[in-house]
């Protein structure tokens, strides 16, 4: 993707770049210690970084700070979004296999019950045998990589306000929406077995940043009914994903702000009922009904007469 040499490098968000650096280092280290497609993506990132640096040093290419920054951020997107997709696909295959076998005592079950996070050093130093598909080390590696990758992707979009729209488009072209839609459509057991607490919160944070002030992204999202409705459903409190409600509200605001199609679809939605959690909270306090426009109406219950 070509980038016009505009914007000032001095306006870069140093706080976000400071966050990105160590996380990219961890992603690279863990991927390079892998023996699958993750290592190939890490090698590709390193090769492209080195090739561009060599071109600048040789005088073959005249360095432009903004173009250089854009290229680095694009490579980070390639690495982290590619990693997140690969991990999801791997866990989906393993989850389906274990579900078919009915393996209740699998490492995935152990991870779901503990939700422990292994340090990057331990993950890097584990043996090849430790990383056999479905092993606890394999699951924790994927869990850690997924969270790191999502955090980097959100920070990339905040790295420079001038580059944000180009980076949003870059992620859109790299099928970021496909990945995020899969995440919010996966079964609960798959999520709990293979991904850490707060995983969907980070996914929703990425959606909120991806949809910010971008007509193209929101138009593409509005065409995905299931995905749009999953984002709306994320406004329910989820103990496994603290903070997701707030990010979902930001995302919905962003989507509706620039997509008339999304606004119309949401306007036409009809209530399907009240969740069990809400029903339990209302029990004994008040009853409820739905108005003709679909709004919830609460009715205070009068105390019984003595």
TrEMBL record:
<dbReference type="GO" id="GO:0051301">
    <property type="term" value="P:cell division"/>
</dbReference>
<keyword id="KW-0131">Cell cycle</keyword>
<dbReference type="Pfam" id="PF09759">
    <property type="entry name" value="Atx10homo_assoc"/>
</dbReference>
<dbReference type="GO" id="GO:0005829">
    <property type="term" value="C:cytosol"/>
</dbReference>
<feature type="domain" description="Ataxin-10">
    <location>
        <begin position="199"/>
        <end position="298"/>
    </location>
</feature>
<keyword id="KW-0132">Cell division</keyword>
<protein>
    <recommendedName>
        <fullName>Ataxin-10 domain-containing protein</fullName>
    </recommendedName>
</protein>
<dbReference type="InterPro" id="IPR019156">
    <property type="entry name" value="Ataxin-10_domain"/>
</dbReference>
<dbReference type="InterPro" id="IPR051374">
    <property type="entry name" value="Ataxin-10/CTR86_families"/>
</dbReference>
<feature type="region of interest" description="Disordered">
    <location>
        <begin position="99"/>
        <end position="118"/>
    </location>
</feature>
<feature type="compositionally biased region" description="Polar residues">
    <location>
        <begin position="107"/>
        <end position="118"/>
    </location>
</feature>
């Amino acid at each position: 993707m070509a980038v016009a040499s505009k914007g000032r490098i001095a306006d870069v968000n140093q706080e976000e770049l400071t966050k990105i650096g160590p996380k990219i280092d961890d992603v690279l280290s863990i991927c390079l210690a892998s023996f699958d497609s993750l290592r190939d993506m890490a090698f590709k990132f390193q090769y492209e970084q080195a090739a561009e640096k060599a071109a600048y040093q040789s005088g073959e290419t005249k360095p432009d700070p903004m173009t250089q920054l854009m290229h680095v951020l694009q490579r980070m997107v390639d690495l982290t979004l590619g990693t997140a997709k690969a991990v999801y696909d791997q866990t989906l295959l393993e989850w389906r296999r274990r579900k078919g076998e009915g393996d209740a005592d699998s490492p995935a079950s152990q991870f779901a019950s503990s939700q422990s996070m292994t340090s990057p050093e331990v993950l890097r130093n584990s043996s090849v045998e430790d990383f056999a598909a479905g092993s606890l080390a394999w699951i924790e590696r994927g869990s850690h990589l997924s969270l790191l990758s999502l955090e980097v992707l959100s920070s990339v979009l905040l790295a420079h306000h001038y580059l944000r729209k180009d980076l949003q488009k870059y992620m859109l072209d790299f099928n970021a929406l496909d990945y995020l839609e899969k995440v919010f459509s996966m079964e609960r057991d798959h999520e709990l077995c293979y991904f850490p607490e707060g995983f969907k919160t980070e996914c929703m944070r990425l959606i909120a940043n991806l949809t910010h002030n971008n007509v193209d992204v929101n138009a593409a999202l509005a065409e995905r009914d299931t995905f749009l409705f999953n984002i709306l459903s994320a406004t329910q409190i989820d103990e496994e994903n603290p903070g997701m409600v707030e990010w979902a509200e930001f995302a919905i605001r962003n989507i509706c702000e620039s997509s008339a199609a999304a606004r119309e679809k949401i306007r036409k939605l009809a209530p399907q009922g009240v969740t069990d959690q809400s029903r339990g909270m209302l029990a004994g306090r008040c009853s409820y009904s739905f108005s003709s426009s679909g709004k919830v109406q609460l009715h205070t219950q009068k105390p019984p007469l003595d």
